[in-house]
Each structure stands twice: as C-alpha cells, then as structure tokens.
C-alpha cells in the first residue's frame, strides 16, 4: 500500500529569498481573501462560483493593468490558494466541527504557500528549489528517494522558515497476530504525573509552568513598548522565540516518549479524551493539558509511531467509564468526584483512582484486540522485570528531552 508522508525541514533563506517569500505570502493571502469574498457575495445572489471559475478569472486578472505583479508569482501558488479555499468549503459542509472559512489577516504571525509541482531537492548540498526561486539552504540529515508531491513553505511567529515536503511512499502493513501480555501497555492521563499505569509513572515535565514567570516578564516588556515601533517588533520576536523554545522542548519530549513506548511494547492502549470539554469543566487544567504536555498531540504522535513500526494502537471510546468502573468487581461508582483520588469500592478494593482507570482501559483494549483476532500469550519467563521498563523509560526519556533543543518531526 502507498501512504503520504511529510518531511519538515528548517530553511535558511538569504535576504533576497526572504523578500520573495513575503511577496508569495502576500499574493497567497490576496487570492484567498478575494475568492472568499466573491464566493460569499455569489452565494447571496444564488450564483455558484466554483474553483475552476476562480482559476479561469485570475488568468485574465493578471492581464489587467495594475495587476501585472501577479505574473511574477508562480501560477501554481495562485491555483493552490483557490483549491485550498475550495477544500475548506467542502470540509465546512461535510464536517460539522469545521468552521466557516475565515479571511487571512496581514497581521497574522503565521504565513504559508504551497507549490504542487516542479520542485527539486539536492541532499548532497542540502538545498531545495521551487519554480521562480533560486536554490534555498535547509538543515536536516534525513534522505528519501520518493516522488515529491508538493512543497509547503511556511513562516512561524518566531520568524523561522520551514518547508514541508509531501511524498508518496510504499508501506507494507504487517501487524503481529500474537502478542505477549507483558507487551501490552495502557495508561491513564493524569494532570500530576502525565501518564499513570500499573507498571510505571511519567512525571509531568511542566514545560510551560516552569517558564511562566519568565514569560510574564517578557510580556510586560512588550506591553511597555510603543505600538508600531521597531522596539516593539523586536520584543515581540524575542517573546515568540521564547515560546518556540518551550514548544520545541515539549514536542521533543513527546516524540522521544512515543518512540520508547513503541519500541518497548507491541500494543498500546489509551483513552480518547475530550480535551476541550475538560478545559471548560475545570479551567485550572487548561494550561496543564494543552501547554504543559498536550495529551491529544501526544496520542497523535504515538499513533503514527505505532503505525510506522507495525505495533497495535487502540483508542478506547471517550464515554467509557474508566474512572468510575471498579477493576475488581465491575460495578460503577456513579457518585465518584474529581477530588476523590482513591477508588474505594464496596467489594473491598482500595486503589489509586488513576491506576484503577488504567487497569480498566487495558482490559477494554485487550477485548478489542481479541475481537480483531489477536492471540494474547501468557508472560514468558525470559522477560525483563517490570521495574526495568519503568526505570529505563523515565531516565532515558527525561534525559533526552532535556538535551533536545528543537523539534525535528520524525
């Protein structure tokens, strides 16, 4: 089977190339907003305005006096802006969670454009080339020989440029049909320990909260600068770079942890949590579940890691009562409150709330694996003890996260 895979590299354009990028960003934004405004107006008058009509119109607009500057831009960038907007409309009508397409702001700190064809890459000299722009330096050691489908150039709030290269690769899915019980791992999310299971605990690194005081100082400095001044722009960039460092540390830790788990275990079972609902229910958890470790992002990374190394990844439904269910007798404790950290059941079970939930998640995941025809084997005597995985995991992951200074996107 064939899969689409993206490689994200850091770009180092020179001054001329940065100016060209800014021009491309502006044209992409202009085309996107113009077509969006016309589609809204056409809809009000009962006229259907398709992406094909928009592409055809912009072919003629480039010939009009005053719009000759559009000819300096790669025509594929203009077409891709229109196609992206058309896809946003399709998603809005298909998926209820997708919002109505919004106009792109010039003041936004994130800009991008996409080139779908005629892109080149030189791994020996570490350079890429897109039409109408000279060779651009990038920094990365990864090499691939797959066909390039598209390149997306982006700029983040800290002024860094990246290229996301989409390629098509062949991949053979070969999941194990037999798994030892000791190679099945499950955990429950905890604001205090990040993940809690029977075998091990992972400390919440608190990447954001540890730097919150320094962030406040920098934000105060920014608020004191005069709006529109160069000093304010410089301070905003310094603040954005500091935020980026926090994000890089968090992402590096997540990818290292996902790698370790996918290497140590053959099946990983987690609960699909409603993070937005948790933030609304308890505002004190907002920074913890999004800025400190971002549990939903970690699950996405872990799922991708499992897919790459042919390991089973099971997501339990978010409505499964993992915390209220007794792991011993199976009864449900309806009056369980959030501040009840010990699960005490009438059957005599007295256990930590999060460990009880991890046991229930594991049992539910094992049932799903059995329904898929996976044979679970009893633990073999040659396996290392559980404390080995706990000690190795916590020490290795924490050390690698501290050493990691940037996210490279495995």
Q: Helical stretch count?
A: 10
| Unreliable segments of 5+ consecutive residues | 381-410
Overall shape: globular
Percent of residues in helices comes to 40-55%
Rg from Cα: 25 Å
Portion of residues in beta strands equals 15-25%
Number of strands: 17
Structural class per helix/strand content? alpha+beta
Query: Largest beta sheet: what is the strand line-up?
Result: 2-6-7-1-5-4-3
Biggest β-sheet, characterized?
7 strands, antiparallel
Gap from first CA to last CA: 21 Å
Q: Give average pLDDT, whole number.
A: 85
Number of domains: 2
N-to-C series of helices and strands:
EHHHEEEEEEEEEEEHHEHHHEEEHEH
Describe this structure in words.
By secondary structure, the chain is an alpha+beta fold. Helices cover 42% and strands 19% of the residues. It folds into two domains: 2-170, no CATH class; 178-403, no CATH class. It has ten helices and 17 strands. The protein has a seven-stranded antiparallel sheet. Strands 9-13-14 form a three-stranded parallel sheet, with helices on both faces. Strands 10-11-12 form a three-stranded antiparallel sheet. The longest helix is centred in the middle third of the chain and has 35 residues, at 230-264. It is globular and about 85 Å long. The two termini are 21 Å apart.
């Amino acid at each position: 089977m064939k899969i689409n895979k993206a490689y994200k590299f850091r770009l180092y354009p020179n001054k001329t190339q940065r100016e060209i990028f800014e021009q491309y960003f502006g044209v992409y934004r202009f085309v996107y907003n113009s077509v969006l405004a016309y589609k809204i107006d056409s809809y009000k008058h009962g006229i259907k305005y398709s992406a094909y009509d928009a592409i055809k119109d912009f072919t003629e607009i480039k010939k009009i006096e005053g719009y000759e500057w559009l000819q300096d831009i790669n025509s594929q960038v203009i077409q891709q802006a229109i196609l992206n907007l058309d896809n946003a409309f399709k998603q809005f009508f298909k998926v209820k969670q997708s919002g109505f397409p919004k106009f792109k702001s010039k003041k936004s700190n994130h800009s991008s454009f996409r080139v779908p064809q005629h892109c080149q890459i030189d791994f020996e000299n570490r350079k890429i080339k897109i039409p109408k722009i000279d060779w651009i330096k990038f920094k990365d050691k990864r090499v691939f020989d797959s066909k390039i489908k598209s390149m997306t150039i982006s700029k983040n709030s800290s002024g860094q440029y990246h290229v996301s290269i989409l390629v098509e690769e062949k991949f053979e899915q070969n999941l194990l049909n037999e798994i030892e019980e000791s190679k099945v791992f499950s955990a429950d999310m905890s604001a205090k320990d990040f993940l809690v299971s029977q075998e091990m605990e992972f400390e919440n690194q608190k990447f954001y909260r540890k730097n919150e005081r320094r962030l406040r100082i920098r934000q105060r400095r920014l608020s004191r600068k005069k709006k529109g001044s160069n000093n304010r722009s410089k301070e905003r960039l310094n603040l954005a770079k500091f935020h980026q460092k926090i994000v890089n540390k968090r992402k590096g830790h997540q990818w290292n942890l996902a790698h370790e788990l996918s290497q140590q275990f053959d099946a990983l079972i987690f609960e699909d949590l409603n993070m937005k609902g948790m933030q609304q229910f308890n505002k004190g958890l907002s920074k913890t579940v999004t800025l400190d470790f971002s549990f939903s992002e970690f699950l996405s990374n872990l799922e991708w890691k499992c897919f790459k190394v042919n390991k089973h990844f099971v997501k339990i439904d978010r409505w499964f009562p993992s915390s209220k269910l007794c792991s011993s007798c199976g009864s449900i404790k309806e009056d369980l409150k959030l501040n009840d950290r010990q699960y005490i059941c009438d059957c005599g079970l007295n256990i930590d709330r999060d460990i009880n939930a991890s046991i229930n998640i594991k049992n539910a995941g094992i049932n799903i694996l059995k329904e898929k025809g996976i044979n679970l084997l009893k633990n073999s005597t040659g396996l290392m003890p559980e404390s080995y995985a706990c000690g190795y995991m916590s020490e290795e992951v924490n050390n690698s996260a501290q050493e990691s200074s940037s996210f490279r996107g495995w």
